Amino acid sequence: MPKAGIIYNDVKPIACRIAQELQDKLVSRGWEVCLASGIGGILGFSKAGRPICHTPIDQLAPPGFERGMEFGIVLGGDGTVLSAFRQVAPCGLPLLTVNTGHMGFLTEAYVNQLPQAIDALLENKYAVEERAMLSVQVWREDALIWEALCLNEMVLHREPLTSMCHFEIELGSHAPVDIAADGVIISTPTGSTAYSLSAGGPVVAPGVSALQLVPICPHSLASRALVFADSEPVTIYPANLNPLVLVVDGNAGCSVLPDDRVRMLRSPYSARFIRLRPNEFFHVLREKLGWGLPHVAKPASVELP
Fold first, then answer.
1. Region 56-82: what's the mean pLDDT?
2. CATH second-level architecture of 3-131+269-289?
């Protein structure tokens, strides 16, 4: 019996209703279906005065989700998509992302397109696009105390953002660099259209094997976004007297003490997006963010005498 999974945002009534209807539909067609909430991918926040407690990257998969599943379906917004990939990326499970939220930048289909999308899935009329993910680790002396998978970005900053932070950053085997800023962002190409974009970083097409370092409000005209090969690990040493806060994909974090170090490298796991049509990245940029829209006030052509 073929097997599929559904991950949904259980805070949204529409996502809950559609998840149940979709499960019934697939079961009636002879499929085994596992249902799970996206809450399992929310890693939570650890605090400086509390013992670190986290779930290892490869143990976040919901019960029943495993290698050998044909596909998964995500019902929610971008936050649910990010959470779902943290849960299932180690299983290699491709996900069809269905928007029941607002922006839906990472989603492939809308709710009103779901019947046609399910037909395409069951007829194997789809492609799989792989997106790079980051493994983010916090080390204290020689112990790994926290880790998470990251699809968009890792942000390290002071909380609250009221004063300058100092960071020593190593990129691969290159000489370390010193940055003074409110914080730093390490972003994947997928995350280049998220926080990194708002902080002044460039948009990087998903197929480019690169990461980018973006200082947040740097106190230097020389500190600008840097794009570099994703084959090189990144290590950040916080040169501050007070703890910093690390946030992954906007919803999970860890307190980072002055003697800790944060290490990032491209994960062996990737986010596998189901595509029902050719993925035109520039079209998504235009539709969701208004990139490349024509000027409506172009001057009319003038014929010279």
1. 91
2. 3-Layer(aba) Sandwich (3.40)
